[in-house]
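User: tokens in, sequence out, please.
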């Protein structure tokens, strides 16, 4: 069941937990909760961002357009979460 469906059915797993799972599956050793410069400090590269976009788009049934792919939207887990929430509305 995709996150969008889970959210509709009231599943306890929220958007942030799902996002954290996606990120930790990609890079288990990165401290995503405390790092706010993932792009600025080259912690994530363009391939990582492409993977995140693909995984998030599929999981949350959203479309991340080219104009959304800016460092500010991917520098932290909080920024990514805000982007997802905004696109889900």
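Assistant: Sequence out:
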């Amino acid at each position: 069941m995709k996150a969008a469906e889970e959210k509709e059915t009231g599943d306890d797993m929220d958007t942030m937990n799902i996002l954290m799972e996606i990120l930790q599956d990609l890079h288990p050793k990165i401290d995503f909760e405390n790092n706010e410069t993932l792009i600025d400090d080259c912690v994530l590269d363009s391939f990582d961002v492409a993977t995140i976009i693909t995984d998030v788009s599929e999981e949350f049934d959203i479309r991340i357009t080219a104009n959304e792919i800016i460092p500010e939207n991917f520098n932290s887990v909080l920024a990514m979460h805000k982007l997802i929430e905004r696109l889900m509305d």
